[in-house]
């Protein structure tokens, strides 16, 4: 998707929250489905979904907003903004990657999800009206299955004023910073853990070799566990539902969502859960979630994920667990 933008010569205009007009119309553009399916078969499903919602709304959309800071779901709104001539907002609805719509700050802080457009790459699709994102997720996941694992979605239409009150700010700029840091690690052969922990105030959860990975698709989601044999002894396990939910070292939980659990190779290559494979030398970096994801209301939304990946636990901040 990024290559298509670059090759087309189109510009992406990134705007900070202060530049967003209060009376402007903002829409979230995203992909939905299995990351594994999308990696091998994405065909720009987001564009017909965006067009469908704009047509239904009957007015020009001014701003495109990322739903999350995920790999594909950064490329999707960037691509939409470029090919539909919209501004891209330097913010998102999660400050991390998330597996479900109900985990967005849009939902947590009261932005109606409807009307929501969902489409395949040929433009077959629907406009959904639901009372909340949980119901939208259940319906949309069934449509995703019908679309063989991938769908484009456009949702959470809102005013610029509302947008400013609910999003996690500055996350695309942060992503650019991370990219620059990783490039520097590779070019100057630096210690990736030292650079990221210092520059991002992150926590090194473990460094070692991936010894096993399980992957199972259930209900449109990728579930699994990655095990890492740590340098110096011990094992780190990361449990995921599309995204990383719980990290445990030698049976002790050391990080849980919404705090971030991030993969990178020891040479400085970023990794999605789809990319992680047996035999890789990896570092696992933990980061504190934004305060908007650490409120009581936000933590309630994340709680069910722990049991879904096999843990009966309550949230504790990474800075406490890592001790």
Give the distance, in angstroms, between the N- and C-terminal Cα atoms. Answer: 40 Å
Order of helices and strands: HEEHHEHEEHEEHEHEHHEEEEEEEEEHH
Number of domains: 2
CATH structural fold name of the largest domain: CV3147-like fold
Secondary-structure-derived class: alpha+beta
Low-confidence stretches: none
Main sheet? 9 strands, antiparallel
Provide a descriptive summary of the structure in words:
It is a single chain. This protein has 323 residues and is an alpha+beta fold. The chain folds into two domains: 2-169, CV3147-like domain (CV3147-like fold, 3-Layer(aba) Sandwich); 191-321, CV3147-like. Helices cover 33% and strands 30% of the residues. The strands form three sheets. Strands 10, 11, 12, 13, 14, 15, 16, 17 and 18 form a nine-stranded antiparallel beta sheet that branches. A seven-stranded mixed beta sheet has the order 1-4-3-2-8-6-7. The chain has a two-stranded antiparallel ribbon with strand order 5-9. Helix 8 runs antiparallel to helix 9 (192-199).
Task: Give the secondary structure arrangement, pairings included.
Elements: H1 2-8, E1 14-15, E2 25-33, H2 35-41, H3 46-57, E3 63-65, H4 72-84, E4 87-89, E5 91-92, H5 105-108, E6 116-119, E7 125-128, H6 133-146, E8 150-159, H7 160-166, E9 168-169, H8 171-188, H9 192-199, E10 203-213, E11 216-218, E12 221-230, E13 235-241, E14 243-249, E15 252-256, E16 260-265, E17 270-271, E18 281-287, H10 296-308, H11 318-321
Parallel strand pairs: 1-4, 2-3, 3-4
Antiparallel strand pairs: 2-8, 5-9, 6-7, 6-8, 10-12, 10-18, 11-12, 12-13, 13-14, 14-15, 16-17, 16-18
């Amino acid at each position: 998707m990024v290559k298509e933008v670059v090759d087309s010569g189109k510009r992406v205009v990134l705007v900070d929250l202060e530049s967003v007009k209060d009376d402007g119309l903002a829409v979230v553009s995203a992909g939905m489905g299995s990351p594994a399916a999308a990696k091998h078969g994405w065909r720009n499903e987001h564009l017909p979904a965006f067009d469908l919602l704009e047509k239904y709304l009957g007015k020009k959309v001014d701003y495109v907003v990322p739903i999350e800071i995920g790999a594909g779901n950064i490329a999707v709104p960037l691509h939409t903004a470029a090919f539909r001539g919209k501004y891209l907002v330097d913010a998102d609805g999660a400050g991390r990657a998330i597996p479900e719509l109900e985990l967005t700050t849009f939902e947590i802080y009261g932005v109606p999800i409807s009307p929501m457009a969902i489409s395949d790459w040929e433009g077959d699709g629907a406009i959904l009206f639901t009372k909340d994102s949980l119901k939208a997720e259940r319906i949309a996941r069934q449509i995703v299955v019908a679309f063989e694992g991938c769908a484009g979605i456009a949702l959470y239409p809102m005013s610029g004023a509302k947008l400013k009150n609910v999003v996690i700010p500055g996350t695309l700029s942060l992503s650019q910073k991370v990219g620059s840091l990783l490039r520097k690690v590779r070019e100057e052969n630096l210690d990736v853990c030292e650079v990221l922990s210092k520059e991002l105030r992150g926590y090194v959860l473990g460094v070692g070799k991936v010894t096993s990975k399980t992957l199972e698709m259930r209900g449109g989601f990728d579930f699994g566990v990655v095990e890492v044999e740590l340098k110096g002894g011990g094992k780190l396990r990361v449990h995921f539902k599309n995204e990383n939910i719980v990290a445990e070292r030698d049976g002790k939980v050391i990080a849980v969502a919404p705090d971030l659990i991030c993969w990178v190779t020891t040479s400085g290559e970023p990794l999605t859960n789809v990319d992680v494979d047996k035999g890789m030398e990896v570092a696992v970096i933990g980061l504190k979630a934004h305060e908007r994801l650490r409120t009581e209301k936000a933590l309630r939304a994340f709680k069910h994920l722990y049991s879904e990946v096999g843990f009966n636990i309550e949230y504790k901040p990474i800075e406490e667990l890592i001790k």
